Please model this.
Amino acid sequence: MTTPLLEVKGLKQHFPIKGGFLKRTVGHVKAVDGIDLTVYPGETLGIVGESGCGKSTTGRTILRLLEPTAGEVWFDGKDLATLPKEEMRRMRKDLQMIFQDPYASLNPRMTIRQILLESLMVHNIGTKEERERVIEEIIQVVGLRKEHLNRHPHDFSGGQRQRIGIARALVVKPKLIIADEPVSALDVSIQSQVLNLLKELKKEFNLTLMFISHDLSVVKHLCDRIAVMYLGRVVEIADKRALFDNPRHPYTRALLSAVPVAKRREKRERILLSGDLPSPANPPSGCTFHPRCPYATEVCKTQVPSLAEIGGGQLVSCHLVQSGELPR
Model:
């Protein structure tokens, strides 16, 4: 079996809650609460879930833009969570990120040429002439022209700025790109253009992607495997086709039931979840989904289910699925 390029084990990101006159820590927001993930070379792993489930925090913690509270992040044979800062800085050449807001992530005072050259200069890649050639090639690969290099970010539309963000991630030829909801801030017509661009680039450069999104239809278009998150934990991981054809976790079923149906002849029963999303500062005991789950039993309220394989590479974190008691 292929060795994973990225392997995440028990990753946690807990943010302290300060209170009182002395600003002591009175609790923690458990944004990411012990997740396990693998990403294989050349694949695109989608991470989905409703707002506040910890998707973006997971991506930023993997890249150590946020220091992890606990856990391991194995990339190319090294645990990123324990690397010294200088070594981690060198590793960033192989780990790049495409941010959600293409305007806030680009320095408004720099030209596009300066933005793209910066990464090459920081990592000491090529001569001055080689760097110029590389950025001229990459700007055209993402669908812009060489003359755009002398302009500033405010001269471009949202879709064009996101293309620049993609070019900045690609310019150092990384082994892994984490895309944090890269099309959610764009118009629907522009979203499809950027998604098609990412799909073409994936083939051309044999990219390995972690694609974070709340939109299941977008994830279905681009990803090979999908991980579903709920309240800081992964509840199901499966191949794209298996997840859409045969979702097993009750939360995954509820998410998929909310996806609009393209054809009138197709019918899908809408699953409405009771209650509100619990606070990550005070998550429920046992399975965090049990207060909203129509199938929950006593064991769900007291014991945390493990993420276990149920066949065909499909992993589910649910007591009832693992025991065979949940109806298909």
Summary: The chain has a mean pLDDT of 91.
